[in-house]
Design a protein that fits this description.
By secondary structure, this protein is mostly helical. Helix content is 71%, strand content 0%. It is globular and about 60 Å long. The relative contact order is 0.19.
Length: 187
């Protein structure tokens, strides 16, 4: 449960990210492709909620807007959390080190929340869930494609496999084969 005020994008992200395989896939894309997990979630949320599609220019502008926060706060908090976790802190009691790591993880989560609010501020109106689900699915996958262009990445089979749990969690009413086809898996 989140200690943050509810927001449609944040609520979507918490629900979807908790689904099986989503965190591993998103973190894999973060590690291999330098993808911002919040932007991956945004791409899918915009499509799934019926808020539509992104253009390369619009997404590049959003990325430029949040980059100072992502670089100067989110990545620093993540690096500090990882450093604490990976370090050999022999002079400090392990439970104290773990408590410090948890606090830094909480700060990282708060920084991620701020970034999500910055991104979502561009879509203050409710979505249109009455749009046909196939149209919303195409929009979500199209948005992910736009993000790949912004990252300078040509998605490969591994990227598609890592995106599958995310898209499947955002569209729980669709059969997995439909999502695989839409992502270009198994063609």
């Amino acid at each position: 449960m989140s200690a943050f005020l509810p927001h449609p994008f944040w609520n979507f992200s918490l629900e979807v990210y908790a689904a099986e395989g989503v965190s591993a896939g998103c973190l894999g894309l973060q590690e291999r492709r330098q993808a911002d997990v919040n932007v991956l979630l945004l791409c899918v949320w915009l499509g799934a909620s019926g808020r539509g599609t992104l253009t390369v220019d619009r997404l590049k502008a959003l990325l430029a807007e949040v980059e100072p926060w992502q670089e100067g706060v989110v990545r620093l908090a993540r690096a500090m959390r990882q450093r604490i976790r990976e370090g050999a802190w022999t002079l400090a009691p392990p439970e104290t080190v773990e408590a410090a790591r948890r606090r830094v993880a909480e700060a990282e989560l708060a920084a991620e929340h701020v970034e999500q609010l910055m991104l979502a501020a561009h879509w203050p109106l409710p979505g249109d869930r009455d749009r046909p689900v196939q149209q919303r699915l195409r929009a979500a996958i199209g948005n992910l494609g736009v993000y790949a262009v912004c990252l300078g990445v040509t998605p490969d089979a591994r990227d598609r496999e890592e995106l599958l749990p995310l898209v499947a969690a955002a569209f729980p009413g669709l059969h997995r084969l439909e999502i695989e086809r839409a992502l270009g898996i198994g063609r």
